[in-house]
Amino acid sequence: MEIFRLFGSIFINTDAASQSISATTEKAQSFSEKLSGGFKTVGENATKLGAKMSLGITTPLTLLGKKAIDTAADFEYSMSEVGAISGATGEDFAALRAKAEEMGRSTKFSASESAEALKYMAMAGWDTSDMLDGLEGVLNLAAASGEDLGTTSDIVTDALTALGLSASDSGHFADVLATAASSANTDVGKMGETFKYVAPIAGTFGYTAEDLSLAIGLMGNASIKSSQAGTTLRSSLTRLSGTNEAVMDTMVSLGLATAETAQVLDNGKIQNAQEKVANKTIDMEKAQIKYNEAVNKYGAESSQAQTAALNLEKSQNNLQSALNDLETAYQGNIEVQGYNNALMFKSDGTSRSLRDVIIDLREKFSTLSEEEQVNAAAVLFGQEAMSGMLAVINASDEDFNNLVNALDNADGAAKEMAATMSDNLKGRLTELNSQVEGLMIQFVDLVMP
Asked: Could you tell me the end-to-end alpha-carbon distance of the chain, in angstroms, rounded to an integer?
C-alpha cells in the first residue's frame, strides 16, 4: 500500500505545482502587457519550469506504469499457459494464481517465476491440488540448490512420478535432495540426471528417495555422478534381481542367495545301466564256467586254469563297475531348480529396501580380499558398473553413517538452506524485486478492468 500512497502523493503534488505555475504565468503575462520586457521573461521561465517538472515527474510515472503493465501482462500470460495446460478454471485457477502471488511475496522467486514452475507441473500431469501442494517444495529446492527453477521443477515432477510418489511428497523429496547435495560431493542437477536412468526401476522396487540418495551420494564422493551413476545403479539392480546363472552362483557363494536343488532321475540312463549289468552278469557266468572246466580238466595250478581265473576276475570287476553305474543312475543328478534371492527379496517375494541391500553387500565384501572383491563385483555388477558399486560398498563407515543420519533427518532442510542462501544483500534484493513485482501486479489489477 505504501507504493500507492507514493503514487497519490506524487500526483497531488504535481497538480499543486502545475496550478501554481499556471497562476504565476498568468500574472506575469498580465504585467508584461503593461510593462514591456521584464515580466515576459518571468513567464517564459515559469513555463520552462513546468516543462522540466513534467519531464522529471510525469515521465518516470509513465515509465513505471508501463513497467507495471508489462509485468502484470507477463504474469497473466504465464498463468494462462498454466490454465490451458492443466485445464484449471474458476476457483481452481484462482487458487493457482493466488498461490503464485503468495510465493512471489514469501520466496526469492517472483509470481511470474512461480507461474512458470506451475506450468512445468501442469505439463507433468499434476492437477490443481497437486500443484498447490508441490509448488513450495520445488521453489525451496531451487533456492537452496541454485538450480534453474524450470530444471528443478522437471527433476521433482519426473522423479516423483517414477518413484510412485505423490505431489504431497514433493516437500520431503526436496528436503532429501537438498540434504544429499549438501552432504555429499554432488548437486541437485547431477542427481536429477541420475534419477532419469534409475528412478523407473527403483520405483518398481519401491525404493525410497533417502536410500537412492544414499547410493548416489556415496558414488558422488568417488566422482561417479550424473548419468554414469544412473546407469551404474540401473544395470546393477537389474543384474542382482535377474536369473543370470553366473550372478546367482556368485551370490550363493557369498551367502546372499541359496540354491534350490532336486534329484532328477534319467530313465534312459537307468535302463542302459540295467542292460549293462545283465550283460556283465552273463559274461561273468561264462567266465566262471570256463574256469571250472579248466580246473577240472587241467588242474587248478595249470596255465589254462590260471588264464581262466584272470578272465573271471576281469569279468567280476566289469560287473561291479556296471552295478556302480546302476546305483548312480538310481540316485539321479542333483540339479539346481531355482534360487532364493535373499539379497533382493523377502521370503514373501516383496523387495527388500535398497539400504538393506547395500548393508548386506558391504558386510559380505568386507570378508573378501581385493582380488576376490574385483572378481565378484565383475560378475555381480558387470564391468561398466563395478567401479560405482565398489565405491558404495567400500565407503568408510564414517561417511556411510554420516550420510545416513543426514538423510534420515532431512525434513525442513530445503527451506532452511533456501533461507541461508537468501540471507545476504543479493538475496534480499532478489526478494525485494519479487515483492515489487507483486505490488505492480496488484496495482494493475486495481486500476485495469
From this structure: 20
Specify which residues 339 forms β-bridges with.
259
Q: Cell for 164?
A: 510412485
Q: Which three cell numbers stand for residue 212?
A: 537412492
C-alpha dihedral sign at 98, 102, 104, 109: negative
Helix axes 170-183, 128-145, angle to 10 degrees: 10
**Which residue carries 497538480 as its cell?**
15
pTM summary value: 0.66
Contact, 164 vs 206, CB < 8 A? yes
Contacts of 125 (CB under 8 A, 6+ apart): 161
pLDDT in tens, 101-134: 888 787 778 888 888 888 888 888 888 998 898 8
- For residue 108, the SS3 value is coil
Q: Provide the 8-state DSSP code for 107.
A: S
Helical segments of 87-169, H only? 90-106, 111-123, 128-145, 149-162
Question: Are the beta carbons of 339 and 290 closer than 8 angstroms?
Answer: no
Q: What is the pLDDT of residues 129-185, one digit of tens each?
A: 988 988 888 888 888 888 888 888 889 999 998 999 888 898 899 999 999 999 999
For residue 76, count other CB atoms closer than 10 A to its CB: 15
Angle between helices 226-240 and 370-381 (to 10 degrees): 80
CA 181 to chain centre: 12
- The pair phi, psi for residue 340, each rounded to 5°, is -100, 105
Output the pLDDT for position 100: 86
Query: What nine digits make up the cell of 234?
Result: 540401473
Q: Which residue has the cell 496488484?
A: 442
Own/partner pairs, 227-230, CB within 8 angstroms, 24+ separation:
227/193, 227/194, 227/196, 227/197, 228/388, 229/190, 229/194, 229/198, 229/388, 230/193, 230/194, 230/195, 230/196, 230/197, 230/198
